[in-house]
Write a structure and sequence with these properties.
12 strands, 6-stranded parallel beta sheet, homotetramer, 11 helices, elongated, alpha/beta
Amino acid sequence: MKKNNRIIIIGGDNRQLYMAEYLIKTGFDVSIYGLIDSDLKYVDNLKNSIKNSDIIVFPLPVSKDGKNINSTLPIKENIDDILSYIDDDKIIFGGIIGKGIENKFKKKNLRYYDYFCREEMTLKNTVPTVQGILKVIIENIDYTIHSSEIAVFGYGRVAKITSDVLLAIGAKVTVCARKKSDLVSAEIKKFNSCNIKDFYKISNKFNIIINTVPDPVIDRNILENIRNDCLIIDVSSAPYGIDFASAHELGVKAVQCPSLPGKVAPKTAGIIIGETIIDILKEENLWIS
Amino acid sequence: MKKNNRIIIIGGDNRQLYMAEYLIKTGFDVSIYGLIDSDLKYVDNLKNSIKNSDIIVFPLPVSKDGKNINSTLPIKENIDDILSYIDDDKIIFGGIIGKGIENKFKKKNLRYYDYFCREEMTLKNTVPTVQGILKVIIENIDYTIHSSEIAVFGYGRVAKITSDVLLAIGAKVTVCARKKSDLVSAEIKKFNSCNIKDFYKISNKFNIIINTVPDPVIDRNILENIRNDCLIIDVSSAPYGIDFASAHELGVKAVQCPSLPGKVAPKTAGIIIGETIIDILKEENLWIS
Amino acid sequence: MKKNNRIIIIGGDNRQLYMAEYLIKTGFDVSIYGLIDSDLKYVDNLKNSIKNSDIIVFPLPVSKDGKNINSTLPIKENIDDILSYIDDDKIIFGGIIGKGIENKFKKKNLRYYDYFCREEMTLKNTVPTVQGILKVIIENIDYTIHSSEIAVFGYGRVAKITSDVLLAIGAKVTVCARKKSDLVSAEIKKFNSCNIKDFYKISNKFNIIINTVPDPVIDRNILENIRNDCLIIDVSSAPYGIDFASAHELGVKAVQCPSLPGKVAPKTAGIIIGETIIDILKEENLWIS
Amino acid sequence: MKKNNRIIIIGGDNRQLYMAEYLIKTGFDVSIYGLIDSDLKYVDNLKNSIKNSDIIVFPLPVSKDGKNINSTLPIKENIDDILSYIDDDKIIFGGIIGKGIENKFKKKNLRYYDYFCREEMTLKNTVPTVQGILKVIIENIDYTIHSSEIAVFGYGRVAKITSDVLLAIGAKVTVCARKKSDLVSAEIKKFNSCNIKDFYKISNKFNIIINTVPDPVIDRNILENIRNDCLIIDVSSAPYGIDFASAHELGVKAVQCPSLPGKVAPKTAGIIIGETIIDILKEENLWIS
């Protein structure tokens, strides 16, 4: 006996298509709306289809304007319309749902889960993020990563794997952090280390700087002391890690790289969302396959 | 007292400009012809400039048609013209000189060196080649290298570093070779291994196949058994490693990638040529800096 | 102008001698008591020497019985005697001071620091601990680590480095943990992973089990299912990770390995204590060299 | 139908017992002579047992004196006695057979194979050799390999894996070789490199020197310039890599480590011999299992 086996995916981009493919392989009955793929079951009547589903999956982020579902193809129904079709026996998934929409879910007493809040999703997303960093580096330099001097700011999940991979490719990696324990951990792994507050003194040594710290640690003092041809890549989130006003004024080459997983590896990113949804369903005893 | 310090670089591409920069840093007096760079000394009168040089550096390859120097900018003098300006006290460097031009050098009794024949150059070029392979992979897939099944054909220099780097990024790497000793060596490094003649039996397992063997080892038998979405990258030299006729007929995605170093990392490739020239000068006691 | 430059080291073992050597190199004036080394300044009159010192360093642990200083050579003065010589202008260091002695320090209003509580010390000690694990493994097996199936219980600091090193040597490493996030992190690094509660089902696959969890996770259920020749190494602290009663009864080969750093690398362990003391002095602005 | 399935193992040490166990698991009918193990079939009448066997396996080396089989337990029959029992339909295996015994085999027109000459055996033996080097290092130092300065002489099979493993453990590794191509290869892998002829200039920097070159490259000039506490490990074969007379005179700590596989990992070493014998049987179409 199957339970909660019928999924409707509303909106999104390629990731949702790959997620759909993955969920079908896992045994779900999947239909899509606001997405196009010749192999997938497309929904004509959204209202009826929601009625006939157990699970509704919204994209990542759910909405960019708070009113409409974020989607490559336009969706004529807005969020309020869609919510009016959803009864409280449905299970809802979304990524970065946001306060406004969350309140609407609560008001309707809906059962919902934000898959983006899950630690395993964050952990798994480090892998496509690091591949994205590699891609951005390789496409922006005309020399080799091997033998390059690369500074990595921060020593969290993304920074650790990035540093490991760059070292394996042959770069000379300097980990820049504020906490003593991060610096010691980096030294144990045989990285060079530098306290962020002292970085401006050695900044002219680096070909590439990668920032993962969501705080403007790469300040004017540093920007004034780097090489002309230094490439700065910022993969942090708001408020971001670079003093962009100064960078612009000084003519520094700084690349902002948000949301790398969906851009460089939508297939992997989609599967990760699918796996996370299944993890949640299992934990909550909501799924019988 | 300096000796053989004046270099003229004739023809080529960006690599020659980076090489020029490197040679200047190392202490040489460098001028260029058939190349443009605002920071470098450009030659107007080629004949005079050759007279006033100790060393003449031709590009890689020296010529594509056997008559003219290979160059991004057109050079009005042909090879015979240029040779007529060169006295036998000059030292000539070129990459892949070729029999025809070599005979002209010999007839004029010129002292010449083919830097492309040097083992250290081949070894060093593996590094930008592997970066090129990474670039081609990342730009042709929408999933992560991490967790992908990748087969590497051959176990020479490029294949070894490629396998190491892909493993470090998290791929599952299978080394495919013909020699028992290569297979055992790969197993010691904890790669999976497969004799090339048995590969067709497991070929449908792989997302990516990278070939380094200059011999059509990826034959129709294999091509018929791979996945639809398998990406094949061939970095070997003539006669190349894929049965391209069958690949074309079967609609297989096969990417031919010759000469990666100059394409993905011209700066590094140029410096490698510069280093090799200096190595040769030192070995032959031709240089006093 | 130097400040707090005179150190007396009381009690301990080889680590304290190596620490002394390191502190002398760093610029301190060091004397020792209850230790013997031909190159170091030995103290005859403890009372006077304490008066003439700025800093007093006790060993790790400070005491095993709460009354006497832990020392290879016997020290005739007990802790109360020694405390009676110490004025409140002195700076005291000790490792695992313990409540009883701490209260005595407090009563006398002394300034004291437990260097063993410092995170950088714990972090740095992972390195000699892992070397100790390697040593215990190599000395207890007659086959190679390479190709062995090794389970590592826990995924904290020691477990992570141990797993990395064993993988680099060629072992097949399975990380066993309870937290989903630890299992996912291990999978990202391409380790096999297993929830501790399911381990008994696959336990007969392993040649070696290394435990870092201070909780009897290796229970009778597991012990009954391992191979006859399985080697179990426990490097956790009390209450330790193995059901030793069952292990004994079942004739399992289980090696208890506390305090590896001091045993396998006393020199490194001593230097780490010295570095930690200097870190504390710097942070507290107590040292001018 | 089985062919050549009956094996008699004559002489040797623990390795032969592990080899026997491995061959039994693979499907052979195995008996032993001059060895003791409660689980294995022991031969009483050597002459009859040889008659009833297809394959005779001698140890590694076959003989130390040219007259008797090398064995932990004494064997009363000498080689000539044993040879008199062997008809020319038998298949003989031995490791380092030696000219004298080889001539006797030839004179009797026997079919024999020296398993020690096989490349896969040499390759596989690098793994236990490297483990042996690790063991010797760890047992002879009181500090960590991590952060140590280690020089590796030579860049052949053993040296490459040793360097990789030591780097993975956190050592600073300098590869010392004579060939330019070896030095460049080592630099590509991010090792430090040093031409052997220049090593004496930097030799006082190293904690540990490991030699794999069978030629006295560690000469008096180097020995006079190393640190007092430098540990030298020689794993090369005759004529060995150290000027031992000078080392002795200068009081240098030099450890000679021949035949590590059999000493540190007899089980693995025995299995490797067994695998090699099977490889040979397969290649020669001598075995039907």
